[in-house]
Design a protein that fits this description.
Layout: H1 7-21, E1 45-50, E2 55-59, E3 65-66, H2 71-83, H3 85-91, H4 120-127, H5 135-150, H6 158-167, H7 169-180, H8 188-199, E4 202-203, H9 205-216, H10 231-244, H11 250-256, E5 261-263, E6 268-273, E7 277-282, H12 293-306
Antiparallel strand pairs: 1-2, 1-7, 3-4, 5-6, 6-7
Helix pairs in contact: 1-12, 2-3, 2-10, 4-7, 5-8, 6-8, 7-8
This protein binds glutamic acid (GLU).
Length: about 300
């Protein structure tokens, strides 16, 4: 595939793939956050943003959904920019786990670090590094960071935030265990509150493709020309996305699709094709591992059609 693949060609390809999977209804809504159980299961959108700033979409482009775990690599990036690699690495490892995103962590035996920034334990450790002094101030920092990647003003979904705040005791337990080992700052309730806020920002499929395109474009948003993250950190995010981005499907994903990516339980998946494009897919019916069923299929089809695997 070349970087000059015409947007019109991508547009007809994603429309074809969209039509092919439009009626697929396998999977379930992730209802462990009660409010996520109320979304329309039929939502489906595919979006591509090229590194020269063109967007093509198919499906429900305007449909908003909460970003959930797709926030994690980006918050890791903000922690890196704020504190530098050495300090961040003192709080988190970079090993894939093969365990569910919310598993009751195995901290590293000697260092006590959580496994990586894309599972909940490591993600909460990263959230605790976001400066602000209060969840509301931290939320402002996160909003600014997300908007550099999307080039668009974002809002938080208050109902999803409240729903997770009322029920997210497992994440609180994970945070308390890490506090015991000094891996998070002492203000546990504030940190977990900010983590719930970070997961509750509303995005659409084109926001996902543009966030991914920004990483594919060495950290510069191709729509706005603004830098979202310093270039040396881009490879840190992409590496973790390739090795840990799709929950317990990460190995299969790297093998079959071969793109740095991140999924979330609300049904989004984004992936970066370095130097070429970002791709975002939304469909809220997820499989047992927490990945969007139609999302994974769309990426497999796109990989086949465009030869996207980074080792091709
Ligand atoms: N807010 C969700 C949680 O921590 C994010 C889960 C996800 O998308 O993986 O449970």
């Amino acid at each position: 595939m070349t970087s000059t693949l015409a947007p019109a060609k991508i547009a007809s390809l994603i429309e074809e793939i969209y039509q092919e999977h439009k009626h697929l209804a396998d999977g379930d809504l992730a209802s462990y956050i009660p409010e996520l159980g109320n979304v329309d299961p039929r939502g489906f959108a595919i979006s591509v943003t090229t590194v020269d700033g063109q967007i093509v979409t198919a499906g429900d482009q305007d449909r908003l959904f909460t970003i959930q775990s797709i926030s994690k690599p980006f918050v890791f990036g903000l922690a890196l920019e704020t504190h530098g690699l050495d300090h961040v690495r003192s709080r988190v490892n970079v090993e894939p786990t093969g365990e569910a995103f919310h598993s009751m962590i195995r901290l590293d035996e000697s260092s006590k670090r959580p496994p990586n920034p894309l599972v909940n334990s490591g993600a909460i450790a990263m959230t605790s590094l976001i400066k602000g002094g209060s969840p509301a101030a931290g939320q402002t920092s996160l909003k600014h960071m997300y908007e550099l990647y999307t080039g668009r003003v974002l809002d938080m979904d208050a109902a999803v935030y409240e729903s997770e705040k009322a029920t997210g005791h497992r994440n609180r337990a994970i945070a308390h265990l890490m506090l015991h080992f000094g891996m998070v700052e002492p203000q546990i309730e504030e940190t977990v509150d900010l983590y719930f806020r970070q997961c509750s920002f509303n995005v659409n499929a084109s926001d996902l493709s543009t966030m991914a395109a920004t990483l594919a474009n060495k950290g510069v948003n191709p729509l706005t020309g603004n830098r979202a993250i310093a270039e040396p950190y881009v490879k840190s995010l992409l590496t973790l996305m390739l090795t840990c981005g799709l929950y317990t499907y990460a190995g299969e994903w790297a093998f079959n699709v071969g793109l740095p990516a991140k999924s979330g339980v609300s049904g989004g998946i984004l992936a970066a094709v370095p130097g070429k494009m970002g791709i975002g897919v939304y469909s809220p019916l997820v499989d047992k591992q927490g990945n969007s069923v139609r999302g994974v299929r769309v990426f497999k089809d796109l990989e086949r059609a465009l030869n996207l695997h980074i080792f091709n």
